[in-house]
## 1
Amino acid sequence: MTQGPGPNLIPLTKLTLSEILSGSLNSLRRMPKTLLGIGLFSGFIIGLSNIIATALVVQSGESLTMPELPNPSDVITQQQIQELVTALAPTLRVGVITAVVLFIVQAVTAGMFTHVVGNAIIGKKINVTESWKKTRPQLMRVIGLSIISFLLPTSAIFIGLFIGVALTGINSILVFVGLGIGLAAAIYCWIGLYVSIPTLVLEDSKFLVAFKRSFYLARTNTFRVLGIGIMGIITSQAISIVVSTPFALFAQSNAREDPTTSSIFMSSMGSILGYTVMLPFIAAFTTLLYTDLRIRKENIATDLDKAKNQ
């Protein structure tokens, strides 16, 4: 049930980096049952997919241990490369399966986290059920926009690299020129789409409208979005590492030669708890950055204050 106005999650004015970071952490402290509850469920799904994929690989008789790398000073033969690829294939399969599940879960829960934090900004709280009801009609748009937000920067890099390779007949340096252009285009797309999910969710906008609005909000704040966005990713990863490291160390101490049931379980537990904290944190961080951009470009602080007092 939606509760009445409470203390602000953030000051309703232009935000600094420290205010965005503290607001993201405060959201976890103020609404642990909702945010960490959704995060725990998400982490469980991701961890379970990793356990199942790992178990299937181990049961098939394949090993997940890292192969011995060739000596860099020696000439690497085609056979050594083939053996290395074959040895890494099981680990890559597990990684790809886990990455796909992570992408889907993160896309689905992003809307829920955003609704929870969006309401908290104006001093209101909603529970898991309410956040799901608000997110469900937007789900396909959120997933579609998440896919585009991944494909555009990735495609830009590969297209730039492809152009560079295609022009190597003219000059070999063009490979690096093409890659540089691709990276620049990828960064531009990443910045422009960084707040696309909260734009779609909180404004309940159409797919293309959210796409354009996200670029519009970031347009005159390019370096701000770049710097703060990178800081958000670094901080979320650091939090995840701190939470999961004890479990990872325990797993490594019990699996020096080859993964065992207990080591796989402990490693997955660490990942689950890491995702439990990381996913809601980065969603809250992105939502607060979106709010800051709208305050700067559209001066919505007054509207937020009115909504808080309703």
## 2
Amino acid sequence: MLATSKNVQAQTPYRTAIGLGIDLGDGESLFGPQLKHSFGGRDAGNVQVLFGDHITVIGADYSYNQRIAGAKGLTWYVGVGPQLSFIDHGKWDDDWYDDDDKHWKGETHTDFAIRPALGMEFRIPSTPLAMHFDWKPWWNLSHGSHFEASRFSLGFKFVLK
């Protein structure tokens, strides 16, 4: 049983970390706090609250994480999660929607999206610091469904455990 416990711990570079998340690409850049927690083995969850001009985004993701052999502290991951965007006065629609899809322009509304992710994370050995970069497309499923492939996420974390 002790050997199994060590193997599970060896799959993740840390248990819990908090930090700054940055969501960027086509459209507005968003910034805010994030928290990542490993559930043991290769499974982890990430939550974030991001802010931009007239928009607040709340998201939660599941990710499958795997260390890269021979690269201490480096992991790759794939994941997916839901996201709610609270948009004030239709400001967010400028870059993402056709001119014909402005039926909610000028109104406050909430969008629901699915965000798949594929990325890499690096924990700096012997420090409590980690960072990630991923491709994180935005698939909006409300107010005129739209898929935006040109979105990325960057994060800087402080490892708590």
## 3
Amino acid sequence: MLSKIALNAAAVALSALLVSAAPTQLLKRDVSVVTRCNNDNQVALTWDDGPYNFEQDIAGRLAESGSKGTFFFNGNNWDCIYNHVDEIRALHAAGHTLGNHGWSHKDMTTLSADEMHDELWRVEEAFIRILGLKPRLFRPPYGSYNDLLLSVLSERGYTGCIIWDQDTQDGNEVPAYVSKGVYDQVNGGDIVLGHSVYDSTANDVVPYGINLLKSKGFELVAVDTCLGSQGSWPYEYMGEPQSGNWQC
């Protein structure tokens, strides 16, 4: 009798453990860690760390070539996101994809779950106010992620943790010719990392890269487009855009 009771207790304990573990495992599977496109005829150009002063310059270059890009925004890094409401709305209206890059560009792997939630929701709140949309794509600062972050992202409804396979190194403030050399090495299906906060990136490197890649026959698309059937709408609709005098 005692052995049967012990076995039953062990079974109950194991069942409870599996129930408690299952949601975390499921949440991790819900978020794809993406480093490449699924279509070798496409390239995804992406820029981090804005909004700042040069996103519209980049958007203009993209428009000239009939291309789309992806911008991952912080809330309060180079500037406060609320100082760029009109620019953000214009980028969205032009068909570019906008994603979350964390409120203050912290290495997410150094944070607790609560701190991760804080970094994410502050940017989400800004998107909801400005666009009426909640982002579903996240790029971790420094490309640094762990299982805890993936679980938090899935809990918040994200579908993609977007990394890259070509880094233009402009974030290290290298000379423009170094970043151009990276574009020389880009292949079909690559996701290219740049930073929209530098004049030289927007008005020297990006025009070079776009012209080069288009001359090779690549289609330049937003990252959710290049994922093909794996991709999904990169937002969750939350209502109409709002108006207000918001501050960081």
## 4
Amino acid sequence: MKTKFSLFILLGALLMSVVAWASPEDFSKKFKVSGFQNLDLGHAFEIKVVKGNTYSLAAYGRQEDVEDLEVDIDGSTLKVLYKDRSWGFNWGKNRKKVRLVISMPRLANAEFSGACRVEVEGFTNEEQMNFVFTGASKGQLHQVNADKLNVELSGASRLNISGRVGKLNVDASGASHLEGTDLLARDTDVEASGASHVSIQSQKTLRVDASGASKVSYKGVPNISKDLSGAASINQVN
């Protein structure tokens, strides 16, 4: 009986320590937002963007970090930053992970920078969508359906895309990587430079302008127009 009681006390203490450790990460805050169709986000945020009938923004993370967020709508662009503490005692403080969940009826332009991690889903029957990933940002675009999709990647950014589009335009530089073989495009235009790697699937046409040590891989049997220089290469994959 004494052993069981001691075990119960130990388990209770462990549970309390887990709760105490986890509770700072569970703080949440909702922001009142509306009227935006563009995103400009960076830092090391974990971001989820979903299509919805209404606008919403919620942040989750350590309380001091969430409370330190500054939300601004510049024209039709939503920006989320940390408040300027350049001249304060907490300048350069160690930030913990903050998660942002955004709902919006339409997403036209999105720019992600820094070391953010992004998931976008639910955007179908769109006319045109433009995405820019820079720095060490990483993204996943799930089941995108649009007439035209423009993607620009630089730095060490990485992007995975699935879905279906009419025209796909890709501009990849640096050590960026696009995995787009799960995205079915009718026509594709790729510009690749540096050590970038682009993988796509194209049905009808594929135009490639590649330089440096860039690599372009493609699925399908499109009509190909290519201009390669340096050690750039293009190859078909199954």
